[in-house]
Amino acid sequence: MPQILDAVTVRAWCARSLEALGRAREEIDAINVYPVADGDTGTNLYLTAESAAQAVEAVFAGHEPRLPENAEAVRAMAHGALIGARGNSGTILAQLLRGMAQVLAEEPPAGHRQEARRLARALRRAAESAYEAVAHPVEGTVLTVATAAADAAGGAAEAGGTADAATVVRAAHRGALAALEATPGQLPALARAGVVDAGGRGLVAVLGALVEAVTGERPASVAVGPARPLIPVAADAGCGEPEPVDGPAYEVIYLLEATDAAVDRLRARLDALGDCLVVVGGDGLWNVHVHVDDAGAAVEAGVEAGRPHRIRITHFGAGDAHAVRPGPERPAAEPVPRAVVAVVPGEGLADLYAGAGAVPVLARPGEPPASGELAQVIRRAGAREVVVLPNDAGLRHTAAAAAEQVRADGVRVALIPTRSAVQGIAALAVHEPGRRFDEDVVAMTSAAGATRYGELAVAERQSWTMAGICQAGDLLGLIDGDVAVIEAAPGPGTGTDPLARTAVAVLDRMLAAGGELVTLVLGEDAPEGVAERLERHVRESHLAVDTVVYRGGRHSALLLIGVE
User: Which of 91, 135, 178, 358 has the most neighbouring CB atoms within 10 Å?
Assistant: First the structure.
């Protein structure tokens, strides 16, 4: 077993954490009753861990054939979690990992005893930094579990002269598990629902993954309580002592580039606006999370503090911040046989999907729907059988969590893993409500899978890609999610040429393997004439290939391309 938590072990830890949270995600979502019973804690933790794991993998890929330094791996883990943090629980997990990284990035010690103490200090710093990040800490939550893990790790590191990394991580996991089991006695909301804290359950999974990475042994599975909360629990009004009143209407999350002083002022302003305030990060980059009634004011506060981006706003109530268009109301006593619910990235696409008989959920940039919102839309569709098209790789776990929630109500739900709206269009084209549900799902899945998808986007900042280094403002041509073409940032007066050149290059690559139909979805910012130029290119260069053009409208990508 490794005596030092080196880069390879950190990589294994991230991978094992993702696997553990993947196994426990649905269970954690089901017991999510505090601070808001929105059923997405497990999904948010998974997505946060996924971002951390991807960042570590990128560091390893960038150092081949040599291995990265320990400090590079732990800093990448913390940074990846920070930029990908989702929800209250994910934001706190990101801060826990950041706290650990601050200690683990130090020069590795020479012996196993020193490494045991370093790990204990890392867990202590993680717990302390998480408490510092939360405006009003509450016991009986993930904060309590993190503190218990640090206490147990510290005791193990100082007990006798044989303590090593394995001893410390096992002790931390046992301490966290004991604290988790005690959480219902500390939070009335958990006691009423008969469950343990969902965020704490996720941390136990992450610490169990650390045990597995260090020792090679997977800890025993953890019981989380009933599959679903026993009774509905109202949202806490202050994330302090629970009160029997409704909480704020919106969850607002964004990344923020700002100075320490500006963030201090932001904390005070957001604390006055709402509750459940968590601000994590440092060194100029922060992740801000708050529950408020005035989402616009929370975003404006971020604009005054610095540069907010990746803004996500989620509505907790019966309304919808994502312009869900559920279609005509249907009597609950007479459900329709089958419905299709699809997440779409543009108003024009929402109209297109609605015209084809689907129930569209409009997702604006940086504002993906939460699993609870999707579950509401699926229920409102009023069907015995529902097909869900997430149309975004980043929404697959959110959609899966929503489907699981509705299945518990007796609705038959199938999730087709569409990764782009053009794949959803292909699936919807072969949808036939009159045939057997399984046959319809197979046909729709086959049509989506046979459709390659491309996208044109503008780079937000300089970064490494599969096609090389891009600069802020460059046009990027993506195929199946990977950057394939980079076009230098267009200058003033260049018209359709840069966009058309990039689109032609992407089209030619996608059609090199053959195709029968090209689907083009133009965003609101696509220049006039580009559709005609692309249609002409396909007609002249790729015989017997048809082209269909749709307008995506506001909020859609610059250009989406599908090849069937």
Answer: 91
User: Which of 279, 303, 327 is CA-nearest to residue 98?
Assistant: 279
List the CATH number of the domain containing 431.
Answer: 3.40.50.510
Question: pTM higher than 0.70, yes or no?
Answer: no
pLDDT digits (tens, 9 = 90+) for 233-291: 333 433 443 333 456 878 888 889 999 999 999 999 999 998 889 999 988 999 999 99
Closest CA to 349 of 289, 424, 415: 424
DSSP state of 134: B
Q: How far apart are CA 514 and CA 366, in angstroms?
A: 34
The amino acid sitting at 413 is V
**Residue at a domain's end among 315, 344, 364:** 315
Crossing angle for the helix pair 87-104 and 112-133, nearest 10 degrees? 140
The residue with tokens 């959609």 is 399
- Specify whether 350 is located in the same domain as 364: yes
Residues 388 and 411 reside in one and the same domain: yes
Domain that holds residue 419: 336-449
| pLDDT tens digit sequence for 70-85 | 899 999 999 999 988 8
E strands, 370-491, in order? 383-389, 412-415, 452-458, 463-465, 468-470, 475-479, 482-487
The answer to whether the CB of 554 falls within 8 A of the CB of 363 is no
Residue 159 lies in a domain: yes
Alpha-carbon distance of 135 to 319, in angstroms, equals 27
Cis peptide before 2 (omega within 30 of 0): no
